[in-house]
């Protein structure tokens, strides 16, 4: 009913306007003043167009004026001022506006990207009183907050969630330093009292509340400013969102998009790496964010575990993997193909002698060559090919050795007579009358196959020893308690461009 009356007022005021077209442009006639239907309409007009003196005058002359009056579209003076970025008008209206419209105005400012107005409202005395009262009552998630029909936002949308979704670093930093956080929703299958009560209250609101919270948690601004290890946080949250997309089927696409957004965010972090030292720090980080632990390619292996394909396929990660692959054989990486084939053939021919050197002289240079990843792969590949070749040769030899001249009857006549009696007594004709026999002693090929099988434990030991040496040579340590030297950390951090996380920490300090 109120909106209908406001529309009637605007129609009446429009009939009082007098226009003239003297110079070809539409201008309001200067002979007659602009007429308003009432004071509220004049007040809304002044707030919309930033007429600060007129706003102050109307407020001073009309003590009973409803400052929360609305126009035909349901917009208050405060919302009109925020929409048109009139900061001075906003400062004047904040003193007398209701709490609901102040909260709505800050969300509108954040949504429109008016950072200065949003910061002004968030730092204002009236808003701080509202914030302290809400925290005192324990209302931190806003799930049970009353939903107003004229509001543009869901009741559970907080300024921090909205600013995070919009990636407004200044607003997010201000709210985090104040103590606001985005609470991680309970698991979908949680059956605690709180979740049961929320489910009974409104099931759809609970689903939207969970989705809005994860949208804020998965934003670049929130992770960069709140997490000490953004890459680990992004990995864990993306994995959780992918699992949630399989059970929360109604919002499956939204959760998958958030997981992909986190994968893109991690790739952006990798794009900011400039030096090899910084890359070593990122890829060798192990443990939780509060633990100073480093291991060779620990973060890379974690990305494989979480199936972060974009992280694994990034050019910087692949460069580090190739560097590990050619560890100790850098010339092979840059050599021409004829040179590579020659070196590969040389290693294949020298493999038996290198194995003997590893067994009897493990500390010799020849034994250490087997610990290089590329050499070890080539030698093991040729070893398996040789074993397959031995199997083929042994099969051919056994086929040739079995003939009609060497049978059970010719070699063991007594056993053959017993076998014939058995067949006659039991009338068993399943087997033949005679059996061809293989050679009594193993052939050279079978002896070589046996030696290869016996040497398998030695090959495993060689692989483990090569892994240990490769890790120590590749920039990381096998133990997970090794710490990066202080000078390395300082140099690396000094070359990293100022990210929002470092900016926030420096400002806080």
Automatic annotation (TrEMBL):
<feature type="repeat" description="ANK">
    <location>
        <begin position="155"/>
        <end position="187"/>
    </location>
</feature>
<keyword id="KW-0675">Receptor</keyword>
<keyword id="KW-0677">Repeat</keyword>
<keyword id="KW-0812">Transmembrane</keyword>
<keyword id="KW-0472">Membrane</keyword>
<feature type="domain" description="Transient receptor ion channel">
    <location>
        <begin position="190"/>
        <end position="252"/>
    </location>
</feature>
<keyword id="KW-0407">Ion channel</keyword>
<feature type="region of interest" description="Disordered">
    <location>
        <begin position="467"/>
        <end position="509"/>
    </location>
</feature>
<protein>
    <submittedName>
        <fullName>Short transient receptor potential channel 6</fullName>
    </submittedName>
</protein>
<feature type="transmembrane region" description="Helical">
    <location>
        <begin position="341"/>
        <end position="361"/>
    </location>
</feature>
<dbReference type="GO" id="GO:0015279">
    <property type="term" value="F:store-operated calcium channel activity"/>
</dbReference>
<feature type="transmembrane region" description="Helical">
    <location>
        <begin position="373"/>
        <end position="396"/>
    </location>
</feature>
<dbReference type="GO" id="GO:0070679">
    <property type="term" value="F:inositol 1,4,5 trisphosphate binding"/>
</dbReference>
<dbReference type="GO" id="GO:0034703">
    <property type="term" value="C:cation channel complex"/>
</dbReference>
<keyword id="KW-0406">Ion transport</keyword>
<keyword id="KW-0813">Transport</keyword>
<feature type="repeat" description="ANK">
    <location>
        <begin position="73"/>
        <end position="105"/>
    </location>
</feature>
<dbReference type="GO" id="GO:0051480">
    <property type="term" value="P:regulation of cytosolic calcium ion concentration"/>
</dbReference>
<dbReference type="GO" id="GO:0005886">
    <property type="term" value="C:plasma membrane"/>
</dbReference>
<keyword id="KW-1133">Transmembrane helix</keyword>
<keyword id="KW-0040">ANK repeat</keyword>
<feature type="compositionally biased region" description="Basic and acidic residues">
    <location>
        <begin position="478"/>
        <end position="490"/>
    </location>
</feature>
<dbReference type="InterPro" id="IPR013555">
    <property type="entry name" value="TRP_dom"/>
</dbReference>
<dbReference type="Pfam" id="PF12796">
    <property type="entry name" value="Ank_2"/>
</dbReference>
<dbReference type="Pfam" id="PF08344">
    <property type="entry name" value="TRP_2"/>
</dbReference>
<dbReference type="InterPro" id="IPR002153">
    <property type="entry name" value="TRPC_channel"/>
</dbReference>
<dbReference type="InterPro" id="IPR002110">
    <property type="entry name" value="Ankyrin_rpt"/>
</dbReference>
<dbReference type="Pfam" id="PF00023">
    <property type="entry name" value="Ank"/>
</dbReference>
<dbReference type="InterPro" id="IPR036770">
    <property type="entry name" value="Ankyrin_rpt-contain_sf"/>
</dbReference>
<dbReference type="GO" id="GO:0007338">
    <property type="term" value="P:single fertilization"/>
</dbReference>
């Amino acid at each position: 009913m109120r909106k209908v009356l406001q529309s009637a007022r605007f129609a009446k005021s429009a009939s009082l306007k007098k226009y003239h077209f003297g110079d070809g442009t539409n201008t309001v006639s200067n002979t007659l003043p602009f007429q308003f239907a009432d004071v509220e309409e004049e007040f809304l007009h002044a707030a919309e167009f930033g007429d600060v003196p007129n706003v102050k005058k109307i407020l001073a002359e009309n003590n009973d004026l409803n400052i929360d009056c609305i126009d035909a579209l349901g917009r208050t003076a405060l919302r009109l001022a925020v929409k048109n970025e009139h900061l001075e008008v906003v400062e004047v209206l904040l003193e007398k506006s209701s709490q609901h419209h102040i909260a709505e105005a800050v969300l509108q400012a954040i949504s429109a990207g008016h950072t200065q107005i949003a910061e002004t409202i968030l730092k204002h005395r009236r808003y701080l009183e509202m914030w302290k009262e809400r925290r005192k009552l324990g209302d931190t998630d806003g799930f049970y907050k009353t939903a107003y029909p004229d509001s543009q936002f869901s009741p559970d949308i907080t300024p921090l969630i909205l600013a995070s979704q919009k990636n407004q670093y200044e607003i997010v930093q201000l709210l985090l330093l104040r103590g606001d956080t985005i609470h991680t929703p309970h698991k979908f299958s949680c059956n605690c009292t709180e979740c049961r009560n929320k489910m009974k209250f409104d099931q759809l609101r609970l689903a939207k509340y969970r989705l809005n919270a994860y949208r804020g948690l998965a934003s670049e601004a929130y992770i960069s400013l709140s997490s000490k290890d953004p890459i680990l946080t992004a990995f864990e949250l993306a994995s959780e969102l992918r699992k949630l997309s399989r059970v929360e089927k109604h919002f499956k696409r939204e959760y998958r998009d958030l997981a992909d957004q986190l994968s893109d965010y991690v790739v952006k972090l990798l794009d900011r790496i400039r030096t090899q030292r910084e890359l070593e720090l990122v890829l060798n980080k192990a443990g939780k964010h509060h633990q100073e632990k480093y291991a060779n390619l620990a973060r890379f292996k974690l990305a494989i575990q979480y199936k972060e394909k974009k992280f694994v396929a990034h050019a910087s990660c692949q460069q580090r993997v190739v560097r590990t692959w050619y560890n100790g054989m850098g010339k092979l990486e840059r050599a021409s193909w004829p040179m590579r084939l020659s070196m590969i053939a040389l290693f294949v021919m020298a493999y038996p002698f290198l194995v003997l050197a590893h067994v009897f002289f493990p500390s010799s240079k020849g034994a250490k060559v087997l610990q290089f990843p590329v050499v070890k792969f080539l030698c093991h590949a040729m070893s398996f090919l040789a074993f397959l070749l031995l199997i083929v040769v042994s099969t051919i030899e056994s086929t040739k050795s079995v003939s009609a001249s060497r049978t059970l009857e010719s070699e063991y006549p007594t056993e053959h007579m017993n076998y014939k009696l058995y067949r006659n007594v039991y009338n068993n004709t399943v087997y033949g009358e005679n059996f061809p026999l293989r050679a009594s002693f193993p052939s050279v090929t079978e002896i070589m196959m046996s030696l290869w099988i016996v040497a398998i434990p030695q090959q495993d030991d060689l692989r483990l020893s090569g892994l240990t040496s490769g890790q120590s040579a590749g920039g990381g340590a096998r133990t997970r308690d090794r710490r990066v030297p202080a000078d390395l950390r300082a140099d690396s951090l000094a070359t990293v461009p100022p990210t929002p996380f470092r900016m926030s920490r420096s400002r806080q300090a």
